[in-house]
Amino acid sequence: MKAAVIVFPGSNCDRDMAVALREAGADVSMVWHKDATLPDGVDLVAVPGGFSFGDYLRCGAIAANSPICRAIVAHAERGGYVLGVCNGFQVLTETGLLPGVLMRNAGLKFVCKSLGLRVETASSAFTEGYTYGQTVSFPVAHHDGNYFADPDTLAKLRDEYRIAFRYETNPNGSQDDIAGVLSENRRVLGLMPHPERAVDETHGGTDGMALFRSLVGALATA
């Protein structure tokens, strides 16, 4: 399985993402945001966390207009897989690949700690390594993680089982405790918590590794 990790000015989780994917068995390329095309044969595009372009204007807004994002949108429209974590989730909402927006945390403070998450669906390549209702622990590190969508969108996300993860204890005011959502075809996932920071016991836990292993396994046999 081939994966591309996108690097923007201000990315700080790109290498963590690459390590997690490689540990799960992926062949990983690092792609600079000014590139207009993705490497040949890429199955998964990973948009990592950080502070792309210093989070000016809105988090992810400038990054979403980088040349590589046009290629990411085309990849998703062809049925390719995309994973966006933290700032990457913000970028995916700005490109329109995922619904909703990420606003300032309700407490207007940066939140950085490990949190319990409830797995809300195991019916996706990203989450099939977990069981429905399972509790996992991923770190969060964000100032703009307050997920908001209009009532119709929220109802659709619930009805179509596209809420991938919910916070057990809401750290940011996100509607419906939403921590991550899936696209309509379930091939794009955005989440604020960092699974790539939960793949090594020396870093505090390995609950994130199942996400990467299930994803790599699913795409390798697709």
UniProtKB/TrEMBL annotation:
GO terms for cellular component: cytoplasm. The active site is at C86 (nucleophile), H194, E196. One of its GO terms (molecular function) is glutaminase activity. The keyword Transcription does not apply. InterPro entries: Class_I_gatase-like (IPR029062), PRibForGlyAmidine_synth_PurQ (IPR010075). It is found in: Cytoplasm. It catalyses: N(2)-formyl-N(1)-(5-phospho-beta-D-ribosyl)glycinamide + L-glutamine + ATP + H2O = 2-formamido-N(1)-(5-O-phospho-beta-D-ribosyl)acetamidine + L-glutamate + ADP + phosphate + H(+); L-glutamine + H2O = L-glutamate + NH4(+). Part of the phosphoribosylformylglycinamidine synthase complex involved in the purines biosynthetic pathway. Catalyzes the ATP-dependent conversion of formylglycinamide ribonucleotide (FGAR) and glutamine to yield formylglycinamidine ribonucleotide (FGAM) and glutamate. The FGAM synthase complex is composed of three subunits. PurQ produces an ammonia molecule by converting glutamine to glutamate. PurL transfers the ammonia molecule to FGAR to form FGAM in an ATP-dependent manner. This is Phosphoribosylformylglycinamidine synthase subunit PurQ. It comes from Pelagovum pacificum. The gene is purQ.
